[in-house]
């Protein structure tokens, strides 16, 4: 009887913790959804209960976003920036991570740690020299400046991440391909990359998410509304002085966060496999 009571208590504690975690993580999405669907009288009436609808829901905030602002352009800018940064990051991080993983001795590990440490440098220390580079290239007030700047912090982390995954991959796979007639690059493309899809997918999700949520560099290099990514556009163009358009802000945040949440849930298994792949042999 005592063991049964202990098991029941343990299961109750476990499911209570899971329920609390689910509520904690789902509440921001619920708050964004309910705020974006409230009418302005319902939203700004301090006597109303804020956790549900006190008046009929409306889509006026979404309509305002797409008709009265450049929200669609901001989404397109963020998509273009994210895809370009992902392509640049993978082009640099894949061969770099594989080369570091195959280096003999402590040099490869030390160099990999050094590359990862560059990711830890705060952006507030780097945007001044980077702004000089952007100005010298004539990319001021252009979204292409972010395509140039963002790989400075995505490439180091992804290189370190892929290096750990490649270290866990048997060397004999590439050696067998070379014996069968492949060049070193051919073995890397035909054998190593297909087996590295979980790690590559992890790098893609990480890079795209980081570019989507970055704010400091975007605020520093871009001021024209047509060139802003969605993070900067929602945070600046929907705030006029001391007036916050909370309905539109929450609607924009909800639309921008849904694709990322769906991507994480669809590829969760591969994402975890890519993150932990370098931790086990």
From TrEMBL:
Q: Which organism is it from?
A: Bradyrhizobium centrolobii
Q: Please state every residue range assigned to the domain named ABC transmembrane type-1.
A: 75-267
The record's Gene Ontology cellular component field reads: plasma membrane
- Location(s) in or outside the cell: Cell membrane
Similarity annotation? Belongs to the binding-protein-dependent transport system permease family.
- Protein name per UniProt: Sugar ABC transporter permease
Q: Which PANTHER family match?
A: INNER MEMBRANE ABC TRANSPORTER PERMEASE PROTEIN YCJP, MALTOSE TRANSPORT SYSTEM PERMEASE-RELATED
Give the transmembrane region(s). 12-33, 74-98, 110-131, 143-166, 243-267
Q: Which GO terms describe its biological process?
A: transmembrane transport
Keywords for this protein = Cell membrane, Membrane, Transmembrane, Transmembrane helix, Transport
Pfam family for this entry, one: BPD_transp_1
What InterPro entries does the record tag this protein with? Answer: BP-dep_ABC_trans_perm, MetI-like, MetI-like_sf
Q: How does it sit in the membrane?
A: Multi-pass membrane protein
